[in-house]
């Protein structure tokens, strides 16, 4: 018998194993709690391409209807499109049925407020209080609303992006692009996006079958087919979305994956070349962002990992761009959320205006080497392990940050250890100026984590 994994509840929503920790009954209860929290109104309901999405979406719609909300079905759509539309349509909020990069047996719910943003920590607490108390504002039959459908969601999102890009210059270049949609939520919209930008595009994995062609995280090990196709078709670049289409990874014209951090690096450098302003990234983003801040004379702020943490700081300091090092670019002129479409638009514009090949553009930035790993560990134990390591390195007098897990900083390298909010794992992210040094860092802390797990188990 398989050990049942608990429901994972974090700042961006919840995830669980379908049929075990996440059931239609539970989804309906969460939707009723959210409807009660919002106080009725229109609520957008979208999903990713997972086979369990339809079942859970129907449960969510039932839970919303029961509390007097009017569900607006938007179908399978990228998360950034749904967030954009929530604000654009002045909806009360949105629920998205998705488990992002988790395997297919998982699914989850993301809860969006009226500004088209994930709920803040204080809002999550208030909403979860309603859920746990079970005091939902159910309405009588005569007050039940009709279910509505929104057909123009993608079009509105793309039009906003095009209005901020040098679209004529991009169209004139006729860039040759190979795009991997991972059979995810961007599989319909990305072809429309690249076609309207005048690109000669070849697409991989555009079926909405719910069966991901490969693990949907756009990491180098998952992009081997894309790398081959870029070389085969002699393309200018390759684009890879994740399942939710809020993250973007790049492959250069030589068929080499550039790493997720390069997407954010190119976007930040390009926008700072157009205008100056603060930049906000999370603790795990590359040191190259700090280099760019110094180059352009702008402040760089760092936050806890998690989109809403970055967004809140961006709004506070009026940042012109920000994001997370996992390929999540946030351009608030479009909407303050991670968005693979705005990321792609900025990268294409950077290529066109610089006149450089992608490999040349990437090589123009200071060189760092980053490794991301994860170690399986039950959630409660993971927090104890990281706390134990925090105490150890505080006593050693190291330069550390405890804003989010444990980050240890040295002049030319760092390591970040944190329990995941979405999976029963501890994440290890390390960066250094040499490949040898970053490998040694990861090996050292992998060993320390495993020893501490053993000690505390």
Number of domains: 3
* Largest sheet data: 7 strands, mixed
Low-pLDDT sequence parts: none
| Straight-line N-to-C gap | 22 Å
Within CATH, the superfamily of the largest domain carries the name Alpha-D-Glucose-1,6-Bisphosphate, subunit A, domain 3
Please report the total strand number as a whole number: 20
The second-level CATH architecture of the largest domain is 3-Layer(aba) Sandwich
CATH class of the largest domain reads: Alpha Beta
- The gyration radius over C-alpha positions equals 22 Å
CATH fold label of the largest domain? Alpha-D-Glucose-1,6-Bisphosphate, Chain A, domain 3
Individual helix count: 15
Derived structural class: alpha/beta
Helix content: 40-55%
Topology at a glance:
Elements: E1 8-10, E2 13-17, H1 24-38, E3 41-47, H2 53-66, E4 69-76, H3 79-88, E5 93-97, E6 106-112, H4 121-133, E7 148-149, H5 153-164, H6 167-173, E8 176-180, H7 189-196, E9 200-204, H8 224-232, E10 237-241, E11 248-251, H9 260-274, E12 279-282, H10 288-296, E13 300-303, H11 307-317, E14 321-324, E15 328-330, H12 340-354, H13 358-363, E16 369-376, H14 379-395, E17 400-401, E18 406-410, E19 413-419, E20 425-432, H15 435-456
Parallel strand pairs: 3-4, 3-5, 4-7, 8-9, 8-10, 12-13, 12-14
Antiparallel strand pairs: 1-2, 2-6, 5-6, 10-11, 14-15, 16-20, 17-18, 18-19, 19-20
Helix pairs in contact: 1-2, 1-4, 3-5, 6-12, 9-10, 9-12, 14-15
């Amino acid at each position: 018998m398989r050990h049942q994994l608990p429901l994972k509840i974090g700042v961006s929503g919840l995830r669980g194993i379908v049929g075990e920790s996440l059931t239609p009954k539970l989804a309906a209860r969460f939707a009723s709690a959210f409807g009660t929290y919002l106080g009725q109104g229109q609520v957008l309901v979208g999903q990713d391409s997972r086979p369990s999405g339809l079942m859970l979406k129907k449960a969510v719609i039932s839970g919303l209807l029961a509390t007097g909300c009017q569900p607006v079905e938007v179908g399978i759509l990228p998360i950034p499109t749904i967030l954009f539309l929530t604000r654009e349509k002045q909806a009360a909020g949105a629920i998205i049925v998705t488990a992002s990069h988790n395997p297919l047996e998982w699914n989850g719910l993301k809860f969006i407020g009226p500004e088209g943003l994930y709920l803040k920590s204080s809002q999550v607490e208030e909403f979860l209080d309603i859920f746990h108390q079970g005091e939902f504002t159910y309405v009588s039959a005569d007050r039940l609303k009709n279910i509505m459908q929104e057909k123009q969601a993608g079009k509105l999102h793309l039009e906003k992006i095009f209005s901020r890009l040098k679209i004529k210059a991009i169209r004139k270049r006729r860039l040759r692009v190979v795009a991997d949609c991972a059979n995810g939520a961007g599989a319909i919209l990305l072809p429309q996006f690249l076609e309207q930008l005048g690109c000669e595009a070849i697409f991989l994995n555009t079926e909405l079958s719910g069966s991901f062609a490969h693990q949907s995280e756009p990491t180098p090990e998952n992009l081997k087919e894309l790398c081959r196709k870029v070389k085969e078709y002699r393309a200018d670049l390759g684009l890879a979305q994740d399942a939710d289409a809020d993250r973007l990874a790049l492959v250069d014209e030589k068929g080499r994956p550039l790493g997720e951090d390069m997407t954010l690096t190119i976007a930040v450098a390009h926008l700072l070349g157009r205008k100056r302003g603060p930049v906000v990234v999370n603790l795990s983003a590359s040191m190259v962002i700090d280099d760019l801040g110094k180059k352009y004379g702008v402040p760089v702020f760092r936050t806890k990992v998690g989109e809403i943490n970055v967004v809140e700081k961006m709004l506070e300091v009026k940042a012109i761009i920000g994001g997370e090092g996992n390929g999540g670019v946030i351009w608030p002129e479009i909407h303050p959320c991670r968005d693979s479409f705005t990321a792609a638009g900025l990268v294409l514009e950077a290529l066109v205006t610089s006149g450089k090949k992608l490999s040349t553009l990437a090589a123009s930035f200071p060189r760092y080497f980053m490794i991301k790993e994860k170690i399986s560990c039950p959630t409660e134990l993971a927090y104890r392990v990281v706390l134990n390591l925090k105490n150890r390195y505080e006593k050693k007098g190291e330069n550390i940050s405890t804003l989010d897990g444990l980050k240890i900083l040295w002049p030319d390298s760092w390591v970040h250890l944190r329990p995941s909010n979405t999976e029963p794992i501890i994440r290890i992210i390390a960066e250094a100026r040499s490949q040898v040094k970053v490998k040694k860092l990861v090996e050292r802390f992998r060993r320390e984590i495993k020893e501490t797990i053993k000690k505390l188990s």
